[in-house]
Specification:
Structural class: alpha/beta
Order of helices and strands: EHEEHEHEHEHEHHH
Number of strands: 7
CATH superfamily of one domain: NAD(P)-binding Rossmann-like Domain
Helix content: 25-40%
Largest sheet: 7 strands, parallel
Radius of gyration: 21 Å
Shape: elongated
CATH class of one domain: Alpha Beta
Strand content: 5-15%
Length: 286
């Protein structure tokens, strides 16, 4: 049996539905059973991350666990570790964990550090594992925009390869059902594998794929000077701010660093179908 945590959330519910469509027996581990989706061949058990006794009961009979990362909090890593320990104690043989691209102890993105520590703890238990290192969710990006449709941040010309949660769910479901779905032989009894999942190549401006994606792709455009003036910057200060921003980005440890582009070599073929350009027009108001 497959267990799925956080099955009432945006990603967990997508995974659960795909598993149900495949005719797989599963158990949804959720904090509020009343919010769990009603699916065929699906049980529901109540337990939260870190609740050892409740997790032992919820995971009894589960062979493979889909462990989705917990909500951001100061004790996030501790909750992950406690949940992993409960899974191992309950007899779970394999953990599929949604990690993050570039997970490392010294990652610039702090969440990637949390994921690295969780990965290391899973490794230390000796249980079989598969780490799915997602990138930024493209369906989150439109929500970053202000009322004027501008996403403000220190990214400069930084790049990312965002991925749709529908595609993340598709890959996760394939991995859960068929451990050989990824290139290479992935078995529960092996030491485990790590697979990065990212969006299309040539990503620009922190958002796009399949070529540059900027405000014009959302049907609007806002020149930089206008953005600065709307933010209270006027006159000669506009040029000064632009120069200072350029200097600071040049001093950044990320300056000139290439990101992850293209599909993973271990991506299940024919699974990821979403196009980044489909998102801004569909998600942004107006």
């Amino acid at each position: 049996m497959i267990g799925v945590t956080a099955a009432t959330g945006g990603l967990g519910s997508r995974i659960a539905r795909r598993l149900a469509d495949s005719g797989v027996r599963q158990r949804l581990i959720v904090r509020d059973p009343g919010r769990a989706p009603s699916l065929p061949d699906t049980e529901v058990a109540q337990a939260a991350y870190g609740e050892h006794a409740a997790l032992l009961n919820a995971l009894d009979g589960v062979d493979t666990l889909m462990l989705l990362s917990a909500t951001e909090s100061a004790d996030r890593v501790a909750l992950h570790k406690a949940t992993v320990d409960a899974a191992v104690a309950a007899g779970v043989r394999r953990i599929v964990y949604t990690s993050f691209a570039g997970a490392a102890p010294g990652a610039t993105f702090t969440f990637a550090r949390d994921h690295w520590h969780t990965e290391q703890h899973i490794r230390s238990t000796g249980v079989g594992f598969t780490f799915l290192r997602d990138n930024l969710y493209i369906d989150f990006v439109p929500g970053f925009a202000g009322e004027d449709g501008v996403i403000r941040g220190p990214a400069g010309d930084g790049r990312t390869a965002a991925v749709a949660r529908d595609d993340v769910a598709a890959v996760a479901a394939r991995v859960l059902v068929d451990s050989g779905a990824l290139r290479g032989d992935v078995r529960p009894d092996r030491a485990g594998r790590v697979h990065a999942r990212r969006g299309g190549r040539r990503t620009h401006g922190g958002v796009g794929a399949e070529g540059p994606l900027r405000a014009r792709d959302a049907g609007r455009g806002v020149p930089l000077p206008r953005v600065l003036r709307r933010s209270g910057v006027g006159g000669r200060r506009v040029g000064h701010v632009v120069r200072r921003d350029r200097e600071r980005r040049a001093q950044s440890p990320l300056h000139g660093r290439r990101g992850h582009h293209g599909c993973s070599a271990h991506q299940p073929r024919g699974v990821c179908r979403s196009r980044v350009r489909d998102w801004p027009r569909a998600a942004l108001p107006g």
